[in-house]
TrEMBL record:
Gene3D superfamilies: von Willebrand factor, type A domain (3.40.50.410). This is VWFA domain-containing protein. It comes from the Eukaryota. Residues 1-98 form the VWFA domain. InterPro entries: ECM_Assembly_Org, VWF_A, vWFA_dom_sf. It comes from Ilyodon furcidens (goldbreast splitfin).
Length: 98
């Protein structure tokens, strides 16, 4: 499990090799919401290239799922097609909740 938050910048709070299942609620409760825009394409690109990396605990032999929760239209929506292709090329299944 990994958690990355995005606005005008992207912040990874927990990588796959950092998140502890024993106190997950406390870890999540300590995250403060960013309020600086909605740059969805930049966030997806960051997750695909950084979070889904073996160095950060992503395993090659598992199904990769990315759930994007957003507050509205992306400010960088013209970059979404290329970013989606990047995720598709790495076989990352995506779900969006808006």
């Amino acid at each position: 499990f990994a958690i990355t938050q995005f606005s005008s910048r992207t912040t990874t709070h927990f990588y796959f090799n950092q998140f502890s299942a024993s106190n997950w609620q406390n870890q999540i409760d300590q995250i403060s919401q960013l309020n600086e825009g909605t740059y969805t394409a930049a966030a997806i690109r960051n997750v695909v290239e950084d979070v889904f990396s073996p160095l950060n605990g992503s395993r090659a032999n598992v199904t990769k799922i990315l759930i994007v929760i957003t507050d509205g239209e992306s400010h960088d929506r013209t970059s979404l097609p290329g970013t989606i292709k990047l995720a598709d090329d790495k076989k990352i299944i995506r779900f969006a909740i808006g």
